Amino acid sequence: MSATIVIADDHPLMLRGLSDFISSKGYTILGKAEDGKTAYNLIVKHNPDIAILDIRMPYLTGLEVAYECKKNNLSTKVILITFDNEEHLYDKAKEYNVYGYILKEFAIEEIETCIEHTKRGEPYFSEEIASYLNSKLSYTDTALIELLTKSELKIVKLLAHSMSSNQIAEHLNCSVRTIEKHRSNIVKKLKLEKSHNALMIWANLNKDLLESVIAP
User: Fold this and answer.
1) pLDDT value at position 137?
2) Which has the closest alpha carbon to 133: 178, 99, 85?
3) Residue 43's closest CA among 82, 16, 4?
4) Count of H-run helices and E-run strands, the chain
5) What's the CA gap between 39 and 34, in Å, rounded?
6) In angstroms, what is the C-alpha Rg of the chain?
7) What CATH number does residue 181 fall under?
8) Which of 46, 120, 147, 182 gives the lowest tally of CB atoms within 10 Å of its CB?
């Protein structure tokens, strides 16, 4: 069975690319928007099965649209697509009954699977995110102090504030190569996936824990 969909993204190329891909898979696009307010109006007008929304859009964010859908008891299921990997956004997404949460870099690869899960009423989070959601706060501050060196704790704390390796190197007055070596070691110690964003996502999800850690 197909699904009716409204899609919204304030980046025209992303909007067109996703729309074309979704249409090619046999789904019916009932409307497209480049801002949240227009997206919400389309949802109210067409009552689609699914709304695929960018989180950061003008007028209303994807999260705010999801909130309005929940508040007004709309049956449309919301999928969010985002570059963001911040913990509070995941929490809000779950609070607002969002069914799908996909990182933009994996959108084309994962959107069809996400839609199929959502049609069945099954939440779907990008694989890149899911393991970190499941492992959220799986360490105590004491365990982290025992596991990571003082330098590694400094680096992961700075990663939690979305600093790049270049920015961290400048902040700590060392080379980027040194920071990358530390990051590689931290990934091994925390048993994370060996992808570029893995440690950044983990750090963001555990920001509160990291703030409570006092390095030895």
Assistant:
1) 44
2) 85
3) 4
4) 12, 6
5) 8
6) 19
7) 1.10.10.10
8) 120
| Continuous segment of H or E residues that includes residue 103 | strand 100-103
Tokens of 114: 């996400």
175 φ/ψ angles, rounded to the nearest 5 degrees: -85, 155
Q: How many domains does the structure of the chain reveal? A: 2
What is the value of pTM for the model shown?
0.61
d(CA 161, CA 167): 11
Q: Domain end: 98, 116, 133, which one?
A: 133
The first and second tokens of residue 93, run together, are 């997404």
Closest C-alpha to 118, from 36, 12, 22: 22
Q: Cβ(119)–Cβ(92) under 8 Å?
A: no
Give the Cα separation of 80 and 39 in Å (integer). 13
Angle of helix 12-24 relative to helix 107-119, nearest 10 degrees? Answer: 60
Provide the Cα torsion 3, 78, 105, 184; round to 10°.
-130
Amino acid at 80: L
185 lies in which domain range?
A: 137-212
